[in-house]
From TrEMBL:
GO terms for molecular function: DNA binding. The keyword DNA-binding applies. This is Phage integrase family protein. It comes from the Bacteria. SUPFAM superfamilies: DNA breaking-rejoining enzymes. It holds the Pfam family Phage_integrase. It comes from Chitinophaga arvensicola. The keyword Hydrolase does not apply. Belongs to the 'phage' integrase family. GO terms for biological process: DNA integration; DNA recombination. Residues 198-368 form the Tyr recombinase domain.
Length: 375
């Protein structure tokens, strides 16, 4: 591996200093091989004044130091030795490039980005690789398990959320180790945050009957809720749903929605029933929103009023319509893989939270556990 410090004449007349590598070297941030590394140092081609001569001398000295540092790193890499200079690299810059790479692959990076936000809140805006070791990972775990949510200073970050953010952070750490920014993969010596089973306040059939018999006097909140119940859409998707997203398949003789689902940020073709379409009202043309007045704050307040009226205040969450949609499909015998696709889940594992055996099925099973030899 060899390299040389060279100059390139610019249109401005100045000389740009760069390192010419041969053969090309791997750039872990750009994820490609490169021959040239421009140092953002520019010389005066024909220095005249003492200041110009002094600038040229200074920039040449800086370029020489960078060049020697790069050659040392390449020599260590060629001999399988770790380059300690990598520890001075900016972790946040590496994380940003990692996240952008995932986005180009179509990966939902929301939790990756949120993990970095928690890290910045804890460590500040400047963070280098040399700060990362086994002790740091343990402390970051403890921080996530004890800190308040970014959404509210009064509510503690849920353990399952902490687990997800920590896992995404560890993916970046492991990638950095493979790219030789870290001397070892410290995550191997630090157990991940375990998930805990959460009790989901899902609406049952009797409670749904009470809600439908005592509807809220807010047409937008009522219709958007029932549409979520019949389609399984999240609030974020319903809020941006437009009439042009609604289509009818002549071949299948059914309606479907084709849109970019906001949360996973990927295209989603979702079949819905005629009953779900009916709740939307008369179909319109163009780019108009189906629920133009839908507002999260107002919807949350009105839902609390609606549910409290029938004694269900603890279940007053818009997302519960989606839960009810999923559990109803599973109780009716629909395959979990199909339900996963209906919910636009990337992994079936995410859908399995709805697949616990319903009480009605368990009650029926219990009635069959009878021994004919006993009275």
């Amino acid at each position: 591996m060899r390299g040389a410090l060279r100059q390139k004449k610019l249109k401005s007349g100045k000389l740009s200093l760069y390192i010419d590598y041969y053969p090309p070297v791997w750039n872990p941030q750009a994820k490609q091989y490169t021959r040239r590394e421009f140092l953002n140092l520019h010389l005066h081609a024909n220095p005249v004044t003492p200041l110009e001569k002094q600038e040229n001398k200074l920039y040449n000295e800086i370029a020489e130091k960078i060049y020697l540092k790069r050659m040392k790193a390449l020599m260590l890499d060629a001999n399988g030795l770790y380059n300690k200079d990598a520890l001075d690299a900016d972790f946040y810059l590496y994380a940003l490039n990692f996240i952008r790479g995932k986005q180009r692959e179509g990966v939902d990076t929301t939790h990756h980005e949120t993990a970095i936000k928690y890290l910045k809140r804890w460590m500040g805006e400047h963070f280098k690789f040399r700060n990362i070791d086994e002790i740091f990972l343990k402390k970051f775990k403890e921080y996530l398990l004890t800190t308040n949510s970014l959404k509210s200073s009064k509510s503690k970050l849920a353990q399952n959320s902490a687990a997800s953010y920590y896992d995404k952070f560890i993916l970046i750490i492991q990638s950095a180790f493979l790219d030789k920014y870290l001397p070892e993969d410290y995550s191997l010596r630090v157990p991940r945050i375990s998930n805990v089973d959460t009790f989901r306040q899902i609406i049952d059939d009797e409670e749904l009957r009470l809600l439908l018999e005592n509807p809220i006097d807010d047409d937008t909140v009522f219709r958007s809720s029932i549409f979520a119940l019949l389609s399984g859409f999240r609030f974020s998707a319903i809020k941006v749903l437009k009439w042009r997203d609604l289509h009818f398949s002549e071949a299948l003789c059914t309606w479907y929605v084709y849109m970019i689902d906001p949360k996973p940020e990927r295209s989603f073709k979702h079949y819905i029933s005629q009953q779900a379409v009916n709740i939307l009202g008369e179909k319109q043309e163009g780019d108009k929103l189906i629920f133009p007045d839908l507002n999260y704050s107002r919807t949350r307040t009105r839902l609390q009023e609606w549910f409290a009226r029938v004694g269900l205040k603890d279940k007053a969450k818009f997302h519960n319509w989606r839960h009810k949609y999923a559990t109803d499909l599973i109780e009716k015998g629909e395959d979990i893989y199909v339900v996963s696709k209906m919910l636009n889940h990337k992994h079936v594992k995410t859908t399995q939270i709805y697949a616990k055996v319903p009480d009605t099925n368990r009650a029926k099973a219990a009635s069959k556990a009878i021994n004919k030899h006993l009275n």
